[in-house]
Amino acid sequence: MIEDYDKSTELVTDSHFFKHAIRWDSLFYMEIMENDYRYFKNHAFGYGIVLLGKLFSNSLICILILQKICNAISTELIYKISMHYSNNNHKFSQLSALLFIFTPASVFFNSLYTESFFAFLVLVAIYLQIKQKTYLSSIIFALSIHLRSNGMFFILYSGYPYLVKAIILLKDKKFKQVVSTALEAIPIALIYLVSIGVMLYLPYKNYCQQNEMEWCKSIIPYAYGYIQKNFWDVSFLSSYKLRKLFFIYWGIQGILIQGFWLYKWMTKSCTIKNNIQGISIILPTIILFIITTFIAHVNCSTRFFSTQIPFYWCLADLFYKKDGKINKWVLFYILEFNLGGLILFTNYLLWA
């Protein structure tokens, strides 16, 4: 009804309906799908969405339909995974799945962003791990890195049980079993390293062989980190400035809720147990929480957490108080981000 003040969306689509699904990062995805990585800054965005675009001949409607299918399957996977980790707590698992349907980051799960596809791959990989298909699980996790770089954190999920097992065997002086455990873990590490290597190599191939840029000289030539710092001011505590008060307000809510739940989990006050299984699945979220709080753009915290299943366990644990009443703080947070987030996103107001 109201004309956009930012007309950049109209450069990639004339559709009045679909243009509302394209904001911020979506514009980069559309540009990359059409013209590949012709600009250096575009290497901040993963190759997964490009492959999806090529698979569907850059059809926005096909990609968005696939997104909805992924969301539906992810809901079922969240229920099944939650049942496994909560010792078959049906009420908790059902609530976790329901909260995913009404995720505070719903706008990103219904527009041209990678959150849906990334969350789907991560949940599939976790489910495969539960079914003891470890190597296949690791391959899926490794593929997720090309949708969102924090997929690499799941090497902790895959590797932590092997590390604990090796330490226990080492204490018992069972050295042959230690070697055997290490040999089992090496292929998993290689799967992740190959995927990370591909992510590092592609921008290196495009920009470091003829035109030696500053980041090319690093021991690990990490274009993504360089782009984040130099183009978008992503660095230690860079979000916490007086001129970014709204960003801080918008982001600190997710950080406080996730942080409070992590504290409760560490003190063994949550539905998910603080055992080897529980620790392995929470570790990637802990790393993401630290990076989001201290380095990344704080206003994106809810968006970042929304792809992690512990975020929905957090909301499910906190949704009801001990007296059985709904926690108004959590309910307000979910409603505020579903409604307010949609308004901000569609009007080019930054929390993307």
UniProtKB/TrEMBL annotation:
Q: How does it sit in the membrane?
A: Multi-pass membrane protein
Q: Name one GO molecular function term.
A: alpha-1,6-mannosyltransferase activity
Q: Where in the cell is it found?
A: Endoplasmic reticulum membrane
Q: In which pathway does it act?
A: Glycolipid biosynthesis; glycosylphosphatidylinositol-anchor biosynthesis
Record's keyword terms, sorted: Endoplasmic reticulum, Glycosyltransferase, GPI-anchor biosynthesis, Membrane, Transferase, Transmembrane, Transmembrane helix
Q: Name one GO cellular component term.
A: endoplasmic reticulum membrane
Q: Which residues cross the membrane?
A: 44-66, 97-130, 150-170, 182-204, 247-266, 278-298, 332-351
Name the major location: endoplasmic reticulum
Q: From the UniProt annotation, give the residues forming the signal peptide.
A: none
Q: Which domain of life is it from?
A: Eukaryota
What family does this chain come from, according to its entry?
A: Belongs to the PIGV family.
Identification of the protein by name: GPI mannosyltransferase 2
Q: Which organism is it from?
A: Paramecium tetraurelia
Query: What broad taxonomic lineage does this protein's source fall under?
Result: Eukaryota, Sar, Alveolata, Ciliophora, Intramacronucleata
